[in-house]
Design brief:
The structure holds 2 protein chains of 2 kinds. In chain A, helix 3 (96-106) crosses helix 4, helix 3 packs parallel to helix 5 (150-163) and helix 4 (122-135) packs across helix 5 (150-163). Helices cover 35% and strands 26% of the residues of chain A. Chain A has helices at residues 43-51, 73-79, 96-106, 122-135, 150-163, 180-192, 206-212, 230-234, 237-242, and strands at residues 3-14, 17-28, 32-36, 58-63, 66-67, 81-84, 168-172, 198-202, 215-220, 223-228. The mean pLDDT of chain A is 93. By secondary structure, chain A is an alpha/beta fold. Chain A has a 6-stranded mixed beta sheet with strand order 6-7-8-3-9-10, sandwiched between helices. A 4-stranded antiparallel beta sheet of chain A has the order 2-1-4-5, covered by helices on one side. Chain A is globular. By secondary structure, chain B is mainly α. Chain B has one domain (6-338): ABC transporter involved in vitamin B12 uptake, BtuC, CATH 1.10.3470. Chain B is built from 13 helices and 2 strands; from the N terminus they run αααααβααααβαααα. A two-stranded antiparallel ribbon of chain B has the order 1-2. In chain B, helix 2 (31-56) packs antiparallel against helix 9, helix 3 (65-84) runs antiparallel to helix 4 (95-117) and helix 6 packs antiparallel against helix 9 (215-241). The mean pLDDT of chain B is 90. Classes of the chains: A alpha/beta, B mainly alpha. The A-B interface holds A 51, 53, 72-75, 77-78, 82-83, 85, 89-94, 98, 101-103, 105-107, 111-119, 121, 160, 164 and B 188-189, 191-197, 199-200, 202-204, 206-215, 218, 221. The complex binds adenosine-5'-triphosphate and magnesium ion (MG). Adenosine-5'-triphosphate (ATP) is lined by residues 14, 17, 19, 37, 39-45, 86 of chain A.
Chain lengths: 247, 339
């Protein structure tokens, strides 16, 4: 396997808080790599540095062999990195389909196109519909995003990540706030993506993590204390001490 | 064509009325009302321009009067030199030349100020656009050759082939057609891929950037288009009033323009046109009412108070009411009634 994403000695602190402390990590093409860790461990901060929303203090991020540490967020998205948000982040004033179609549009060349009505461009709409169908939101396509439930918003986040056709999906707690049945469905669905997409999965739900992940990294106080297969992580004393034991 | 919605009908009827009424005013010998509708339509064009930013981009620009002023001076300055000499490279009565100058100058001003202003957000954006507007105001104020504070009279209107803008009805029709074109441009623009990005960035900029859109660039282009449309309105306004002064660029003018957009409803095609119509009508009515009060009070106080100039006061109160209680402006009200 080849490293799709390579993180080297990444550091980031906010005032006195070191949110990312010398993090090095590789994500292989096609794997689901989970990051687990207690609240405030720095998981979201790490994702933000990978997608370009935050600048690291030091260290490098390499994607497909190119150093992208100083690339802007929109440029990284175009290279094939997408992110779902821990706290739902959608365009609430637009329809569900519009939101997802924008993700398709973003990968379809520049958008300095002023004449044709965007809602009449078939391939944008069709691809968006296909992503909505995959997450089971098809019948909600024409509803206003603000009218959907929390669970449906989480599904939209996934649909958008799919529609962007990104090679690397950074999913920040996609199960947050979902009921057991909804979580179960999402796990089943993410399994079907295995091999097609590379996923960096941040998740608190241990059942989901152990069911999905090829490899797991444990982040505590901004530091990676262990990386390994689910079995290795389960039997790692440090991890049990620092994290799993506390659950 | 599909069936028209209720809003579609209102738009159609309103625009038809605007097309028909001024000729009737003209033929029945009421030029005052032709003037009133001309001013209304010209300001509506600028409001449509501002609406692209405010209604669809969520960018509250408080400096759009600067573009109107630039457009108007692009008529006045070449005409001044054509009459009095000097600055040969710019001296001209040619309407196309003046229009090109108006568009180029307002686009350039938008590009430079927008590039800086769009680095900020929210209330800072509002303040910085206002500051740039005031900069343009003081710039024209300092140009003594063009009258400075006293302004400049345009002796000869823009010359165009076949038509003469000296005829009030012709000028009106040019303005009216321009408004329809501006509305069409706005409608096409906001529904295009470009428009979707603009609206998406208004709703959630972080999401749009994460999707891969450099929203700053899209907003800058919207700013340039919006400013150019306002500059075009200024070109017409200069020809209409034949008198230009820095007062046209004052920040209160920008505020009025903003109110027109908010009053009418920021995210519809007709909204800004409706807003500017109501604005102009209320302005006239309130001036009348305040004048009438003055007449009542005069015997009691023994002198005229000149209350007419204070029409802003009740107007301001009305606007606060609209902003607080009528979400989506008048068009929003119509939409809800239609449901
Ligand atoms: N913008 C910020 N400014 C200051 N401190 C921040 C900022 N963002 C995060 N932090 C701090 O950095 C640390 C890591 O936060 P982060 O949100 O990355 O944790 P997390 O692992 O995602 O937690 P959770 O499981 O609750 O989502 C926390 O101590 C947090 O308070
Ligand atoms: Mg987090």
């Amino acid at each position: 396997m080849v490293a799709l994403l390579k993180i080297d000695a990444l550091c980031k602190s906010f005032g006195g808080v070191t949110a990312t402390d010398d993090v090095s990590l590789t994500v292989e093409a096609g794997e689901i790599h989970a990051i687990i860790g207690p609240n405030g461990a720095g998981k979201t901060t790490l994702v933000a540095q990978l997608c370009g929303a935050l600048k690291p203090d030091s260290g490098t991020v390499t994607f497909k062999g190119a150093n992208i540490t100083n690339r802007a967020a929109h440029a990284r998205a175009r290279l094939g990195i997408t992110r779902s948000f821990q706290i739902t982040s959608l365009v609430m004033s637009m329809s569900v389909l519009d939101n997802v179609a924008l993700a398709v549009q973003a990968q379809d060349g520049h958008s300095f196109r002023f004449l044709k009505p965007a809602r009449k461009i078939k391939h944008l709409r069709d691809e968006a519909m296909e992503s909505l169908r995959m997450v089971g939101l098809r019948r909600r396509a024409n509803d206003l995003t603000s009218e959907l439930s929390h669970g449906e918003h989480r599904q939209m986040e996934i649909a958008i990540a799919l529609a962007s056709r990104a090679q690397l999906m950074l999913l920040d707690e996609p199960m947050a706030g979902l009921g057991p049945e909804e979580s179960g469905n999402l796990v089943t669905f993410l399994k079907t993506l295995k091999g097609e997409r590379t996923i960096l999965l941040i998740e608190h739900d241990m059942d989901a993590v152990f069911a999905l992940a090829d490899r797991i990294s444990v982040l505590v106080y901004g530091r990676i204390i262990a990386t390994g297969t689910p079995d290795e992580i389960r039997s790692n004393d440090d991890v049990r001490h620092a994290y799993l034991g506390e659950e | 064509m599909g069936r028209l919605s209720a809003i579609g009908w209102v738009t159609l009827v309103f625009m038809l009325a605007l097309a028909i009424l001024p000729p009737i005013f003209m033929w029945t010998g009421q030029p005052f009302y032709v003037d009133l509708t001309t001013r209304l339509v010209v300001l509506a064009i600028a409001a449509v321009g501002l609406n692209i930013l405010l209604g669809f981009g969520g960018l509250v620009s408080f400096g759009h009067a600067a573009f109107i002023g630039i457009g108007a001076y692009a008529v006045g300055i070449p005409a001044y030199h054509a009459t009095w000499g000097g600055m040969d490279f710019i001296a001209s009565y040619n309407g196309f030349f003046q229009l090109a100058l108006a568009l180029a100058a307002s686009a350039l001003f938008a590009l430079v100020t927008g590039a800086i202003a769009l680095r900020t957000k929210g209330v800072y954006f509002l303040m910085i656009t206002m500051a740039f507007g005031q900069m343009a105001y003081y710039f024209f104020l300092s140009l003594d050759i063009y009258g400075g504070d006293d302004g400049l009279t345009i002796d000869v209107r823009s010359e165009l082939p076949l038509i003469s803008l000296d005829n009030p009805l012709t000028l009106y029709l040019v303005a009216y057609v321009s408004l329809v074109v501006a509305m069409f441009i706005k409608h096409t623009l906001v529904n295009s891929r470009f428009g979707m990005v603009l609206q998406g960035a208004k709703g959630n900029n972080e999401r749009m950037v994460t999707l891969g859109f450099n929203t700053y660039k899209y907003q800058l282009v919207a700013y340039v288009i919006s400013g150019s449309i306002a500059g075009y309105a200024g070109f017409l306004l200069g020809n209409f009033t034949t008198f230009i002064s820095p007062d046209m660029l004052d920040w209160t003018r920008s505020g009025e323009l903003m109110f027109m957009v908010i009053l009418g409803g920021a995210s519809t095609v007709l909204g800004p046109v409706l807003g500017s119509s109501i604005f102009i009508l209320i302005e006239e009515v309130l001036k009348g009412v305040m004048g009438w009060f003055d007449g009542l009070l005069e015997p009691l106080i023994g002198r005229e108070l000149g209350l007419e100039v204070y029409w802003h006061l009740p107007f301001g109160l009305m606007l606060i009411f609209v902003v607080l209680f009528v979400r989506g402006g008048l068009m929003g009200l119509l939409k809800r009634r239609g449901k």
